[in-house]
Write a structure and sequence with these properties.
Low-confidence stretches: 102-106, 225-244, 312-365
Number of helices: 12
Protein name: Transmembrane protein 26
Radius of gyration: 30 Å
Mean pLDDT: 75
Keywords: Membrane, Transmembrane, Transmembrane helix
Shape: flat
Distance between the termini: 46 Å
Strand order of the largest sheet: 3-4-5
InterPro entries: Transmembrane_26
Organism: Mizuhopecten yessoensis (Japanese scallop)
């Protein structure tokens, strides 16, 4: 029977092989259309992927990192430059053949992808991908396969420190992000963009910027998980513990800064300066505006919920707790006094010259864990009045 450790290693290696195959095909296509052997140097990024694979297998036993995915970053380093050069090469061809009637025929000609490996003993060896596509279709196919591999790769990769719930949320966010990026490339169909070198470079730059989201793991899962603004009680507690910049806040800011806001600025530029008033551009401009408004609304809701749920700490004196859950001051036994947990001891204030301990109430069948632990008394304000509770700290006595 295959162990979980072996299965984790197999999954980690399989995804990296998938990354390598697509990266090499992208470089191969670039060499096929340019016949420039220097572009094969882009494949050196695969050496870093080999190093990253070795470190992940040895240090993490195949499991992925929690916040950042280095294998995806290296994969993008080898594939994105290839697509950049392909796009710029096709743009130069379009510009050079603007006044040539044969230019459209050449651009629409169907091509496959093949490479001759030479002859051995009269036998001809050749690698061929029997798919007939136009140059523009080849580029769009490589771009869309890139997004598909990023989603499938994250699904197949070991989840590492992610929970199953976080992984499912992350995959859904990836699908939505990939759909927005595919829609962004619709701008290349506009005549004002196809023959404008500056606009093509700007679009490719914003596309590359948006792909950085796929290298971020936990923050991306929080980006658009809940645009309705609803916050559960557990999330509020975690947010109080982590401070103002929790994972969902980082995720929302990253989504706005890396994708939605740059996409909106470019589309507004096309409308206001270049008079691109097509239905597609107007629709996606409205969509990006609405998404940014929803994300900002989500930020406001997170801030309000955190402010309302933030406990108002009065003091950090430590109190003991007996076997019935009642706090008790650590003083000589003959002078021991008990206080109800919902009543402020000493008339609503705590003396500065007292030190307190807590003894935990057994919550399981293990009655041996009865060592005193350190707790802090905190006060919370509600509509019906004040309430007190004890929060355990890490220290033990």
């Amino acid at each position: 029977m295959v162990s979980f450790g072996t299965l984790t290693i197999v999954r980690a290696i399989s995804v990296r092989l998938l990354f390598t195959c697509h990266g090499l095909v992208s470089i191969w296509r670039l060499y096929y259309v340019t016949h420039d052997t220097r572009f094969w140097y882009l494949g050196l990024a695969m050496a870093f992927l080999l190093i990253e694979t070795s470190v992940t297998l040895v240090k993490n036993r195949g499991k992925e990192w929690k916040w950042f995915c280095p294998s995806v970053c290296i994969y993008l380093m080898s594939t994105v430059p290839s697509i950049w050069f392909l796009e710029l090469h096709e743009m130069e061809k379009r510009i050079s053949t603007t006044n040539d009637s044969r230019g459209h025929a050449q651009n629409d000609s169907l091509e496959d992808l093949s490479a001759e490996l030479g002859n051995v003993l009269g036998v001809r060896f050749e690698i061929r991908i029997p798919i007939l596509l136009s140059p523009d279709q080849w580029i769009r196919t490589l771009e869309q396969i890139l997004l598909l591999i990023l989603i499938l790769g994250r699904w197949i990769l070991p989840k590492g420190k992610l929970t199953h719930d976080q992984l499912s949320q992350l995959l859904l966010v990836y699908i939505g992000t990939a759909a927005d990026i595919v829609e962004f490339f619709e701008a290349f169909k506009e005549e004002e963009v196809r023959y404008n070198k500056m606009l093509c470079i700007i679009i490719l730059g914003l596309w590359s910027l948006s792909l950085i989201q796929f290298t971020l793991v936990l923050t991306a899962a929080k980006a658009r998980r809940d645009q309705s603004g609803l916050v559960t009680g557990n999330e509020g507690g975690r947010r109080q513990k982590n401070g103002c910049c929790a994972a969902d806040v980082y995720g929302i800011l990253i989504s706005i800064l890396l994708q939605d806001l740059p996409f909106l600025v470019l589309r507004l530029l096309l409308i206001l300066k270049y008079k691109v008033l097509s239905y597609t551009n107007m629709f996606f401009t409205s969509k990006n505006t609405l998404v940014i408004i929803l994300l900002l609304y989500r930020l406001v809701v997170v801030y309000i919920e955190r402010k309302n749920n933030k406990p108002n700490a009065l003091d950090h004196r430590e109190y003991p707790q007996d076997d019935f859950g009642t706090p008790r001051e650590v003083i000589p036994r003959s002078h021991s006094v008990s206080h109800n947990i919902r009543q402020p001891p000493y008339g609503g204030h705590l003396p500065d010259d007292k030190q307190y301990l807590m003894k935990t109430l057994p919550r399981s069948n293990n009655h041996n864990d009865n060592k005193p632990k350190m707790y802090k008394l905190r006060q919370e304000k509600y509509q019906w009045g004040k309430d007190y509770h004890f929060e355990q700290v890490d220290g033990r006595v």
